[in-house]
Amino acid sequence: MTQNPTPAGSSLLRSVDDLRGPAGRLEALLNEGRDDAPYAAVVCHPHPLFGGTMHNKVVYHAMKTLSGHGFPVLRFNFRGAGLSEGEHDNGHGEVDDVRAALDWMSQEYHRPLLFAGFSFGSSVGLRACCGDERVKGIAALGLPVSAGGREYHYHFLARCNQPKLFISGTADQYGPQAAVEAVVASAAPPAQLVWVEGADHFFAGKLEQMQQAFNSWIEVTTQ
Fold first, then answer.
1. Cβ(48)–Cβ(88) under 8 Å?
2. pLDDT of residue 150
3. pLDDT for residue 85 is more than 80
4. Which residues contact 41 (CB under 8 A, 6 or more apart)?
5. Residue 152 in contact with residue 124, Cβ under 8 Å?
6. Class level of CATH domain 2-221
7. What is the domain partition of the chain in residue ranges?
């Protein structure tokens, strides 16, 4: 692990050199938290074929929110994105990338985990995290239901008993309100849905509202 002198969020930012998934090394950044932080967190980025990386604005703001609680937060690029090795696998192998990140954080910090993903990252992350007893809360930001000609299905959420937060914009072009509400209604409790009025898929001009909703859920979930 090598130090980057640029701080981000409320903690020191470091590059991670030893995070590996089944497809090879995954480029990653770690925001270190307090030594006594009760949780560690992983945040995942949107679709890499449409420019998504760990430097995405929504991902960055999610990291800042978690880091504001003193938690160490790991962001990484999925296989084939940025400097990560391997090739994009249409959301299949990416589930294993998330699991590799969860394993790394669990081994590094030996404490309960929280997960947040944006768009494609939320879809992949839900699949990786549901049923993983180490993950004590899952936040899906801008959950995609229909995007790029692909339909996303979430039948497995009926068996996902961890606390779940869904934050979407009322003008999300990839997550129409009725479709997202149906997904959340099908999920095992606890599952909370928060609408950001007027926000599009990327929460343009509405990132503060997204952060506020996410922060409130973190406070309740980690009590």
1. yes
2. 87
3. yes
4. 66, 71, 72, 73, 74, 105, 113, 114, 115, 116
5. no
6. alpha beta
7. 2-221
